[in-house]
Amino acid sequence: MALTVMHVSHGAAGGAGRAARRAHRASRAAGVLSAFAFIDGEATEPGDILLRPRPPEDAAEAALATALHDRVQWGLVQSARSAATNTLFSIAHPALALDRQALFAAADVLHLHWSTWAVAPSALQAWLAAGRAVVWTLHDMWPMTGGCHYPAGCEQYRTACLRCPQLADAWSLVPNAFAEKRAAWSAPGPVVVAPSSWMAARAAESAILRGCRIEVIPNPIDTDLFAPRADRDGLRAAWGLGPRDLLLVAGAHDNREARKGGALLAAALQALAADGRLAAVLPPGAQVALAGFGRSALPEVPGMRRLDFGEVTQDDVLADILAAADLACIPSIEDNYPNVAVEAMACGTPCVATPVGGLPELVREGSSGILATAAGADALAEALRRFAAHHHGDAAMRARARTQAEVENATGVIGARLATLYRDLAGEGRDITPAAHDRALGAFARAPVAVAAVPGAEFLRFPTNLMLREAGGAAVASVRAPAAQASAAGALRVMALRAQHGHHGAQSGPWQFLRHLPPGVDAALRATPLGAGLAGTQADAWRSWGRLLGTAPFGQQGNAWLAEADLLAECAAEGFDVLHAIDGELALWLLPHVPAALFQGGQRPAMAATFHQPPALLAGMVNAAMLRALDAVVVLCEAQRAALSRHLPAERLHVIPHGIDSGFFTPGPRATGDGFRLLAVGHWLRDFDTLFATFAALRAAGLDARLRIVSPNPPRGVPPGVQVEGGLTDEALRAAYRDADALLLPLHDATANNAILEAMACGRPVVATDVGGVADMTDSAARLAPPGDARSMADAVLALAADPAAAAALGAEARARAEALDWRHIAARHAALYAALAEARA
């Protein structure tokens, strides 16, 4: 009896491909009848299956596959990348319909690795629905995100990827991809194998994989091939290096990938070369050399000898390089379980590494290497100096590194663990001989596999669907999307529609509460880009319809009308309990007036809208007759409720305040700086005249005030000495709050205000204008001045500057108030409203 296992990866090269092949070899060594299938690479070993994509025969599906590959993955996605990171960002399509391939149908266990573009979500969904044994090794985080392979500090994968910091996503590719993955493999899910405990923890906290069984099994290494070299000194001598020289080695599949830390290592080495700290601890006359490998060269380090090996494709050559080195440098900014660390240690070469991802599990301080205290140039430089001073030539450390790899990563060790997992999932297998298995594999070694061109229904949501029709031409419009996955029985179904505002980051925006709705509420979110770009040549027609219906200019945007038309089509096919326009000023004019017969089951969902603008602006934005068609109106403050009460009965008006992510915006480290530092953030309804007058009054009073303005739309007439900037990341904006002594924010009007809430959550004192809903929001945890009163604002700032204890107390009170407005509490209030609306509808 023997188990048959199909390992599958997109490629056979790269870190994940090499790890996948080694898992396949380890499985075979443990007596498992294993095969290794891939698209990119050459079939060179027993059990290799080169997957050959066969384009769709249907013309419409072929056009869709081309649009997804050429126009979306290698067109839109690449052009829309932000500067957050240059690590690959990928959609899942087009991929292969491996559920239709005979070897995959016959295998006892399907073991996925880096399977982007290889395994279609629909194939995995079909396997799981059929009860197949599926194992998925996480070589990165893509299976649990909306498209990033490493999140660059973003934690949206824990809830939902709604606003991506890595992609300017006008088409909702990211939230739609996240929803598709969640529907395809979250329940029932695969058995997740994490090479590191760090990655296992990320999976366990993710919204997609948290319900899966998760096992920690490290990547294997061939400890016979990757082993110490008896002729190590001879190798070094051939490269012009003596026994006392310090040979560092570093490299990655592509050293241009920022997260691999090549620039960080260069900065650390440059600092050591400049100040002589490294040379000072080496034997007299010893030189320092850096051996680099990978698709691109590491950055130059002046004064340091370089050995540039280029792209090393043979493991025995790589083992020679690693074994000859004194130290392997792994300066990652983000990483999971890099192969090079295990490879180096198996060769008896210790590592120096940053304390990120799974590296602290691999590189053990003083035992198998040196761990830097932080992922920074100074900390890495000190770790390198510490190694040179205490462990250069340390035979005992080299032996410990080798032993660690033998005990924890050897092919036999990991093969046995994988075989145990496979048997736990699929039993003892069937009566198949290895010879028969290899002959069966050979028959399919180059057989074609159909391309799966049609994404899941969740991916083909608005506005991705419109973009694909435009990108793929008329044929794509005829492709029928699959049916959406049914919601859990008894779940309250909510459809939320929001506008895409450019100034909202991944941690801000009035729709953030949707991440935190309690179990039992199934919420879908659709996003509408502002303007009429989606309407194309029909934009004027939509605007004319808006004028005919009496909507204000905000309601004449073609994109908004198209969104409602698309939502109507969804509601005709699926039943929703509540439709909620998160930006009521910009949506939900059409659907409340549509006959109930057009909705699924002839039942109209309850309709709700949230309004954000102050009463003076709302008067010109809402149509009273349309307002009365809503079942509920949510406002952020009492001033709005009073203004709208003449249009709606009290029971249909609900005050639910704006919230804040108090887990992201937190008090934290503060950079040093001169003067009393004031911060102003934003542009909408900001009173810059009063801001500048207040700043002048503070300077006139003798306060060394410094003013920093963060705004996407900088004001005119900025006084000398005022710093103005825009385009900050969420992390940089948080740092700006933390670095300020106070937020100074004069306003013309307001209901809620993100800047005030974010500053409060960061524990900063706030001085603002007492208008609209500001007093409701701050609840005594801020100093408020009358509108336009620069003198009162200046007095409030001067009082804070003169009494640091009082300023600290106000900051602590502000933090407490922000915690009371955390999105989790706001989500609970929305959930209660949804439940009440659904009950009334029933």
Explain the overall architecture.
The chain has four domains: 258 residues, Glycogen Phosphorylase B (Rossmann fold, 3-Layer(aba) Sandwich); 173 residues, Glycogen Phosphorylase B (Rossmann fold); 162 residues, 3-Layer(aba) Sandwich (Rossmann fold); 146 residues, Rossmann fold. Helices cover 37% and strands 16% of the residues. The protein is built from 29 helices and 28 strands. It is globular. The chain starts with a strand and ends with a helix. This is Glycosyltransferase subfamily 4-like N-terminal domain-containing protein. It comes from Roseomonas fluvialis.
Shape estimate: globular
Look up the CATH topology of the largest domain.
Rossmann fold
Order of strands across the widest beta sheet? 3-2-1-6-7-8-9
Secondary structure tally, helices = 29
Compute the number of strand runs: 28
* Radius of gyration computed on alpha carbons: 30 Å
Give the C-level CATH assignment of the largest domain. Alpha Beta
Any guess at the CATH architecture of the largest domain? 3-Layer(aba) Sandwich
Superfamily (CATH H level) name of the largest domain:
Glycogen Phosphorylase B
Structural class: alpha/beta
Number of domains: 4
Distance between the termini: 57 Å
Proportion of β residues?
15-25%
pLDDT under 50 segments (min length 5)?
Answer: none
Mean pLDDT: 94
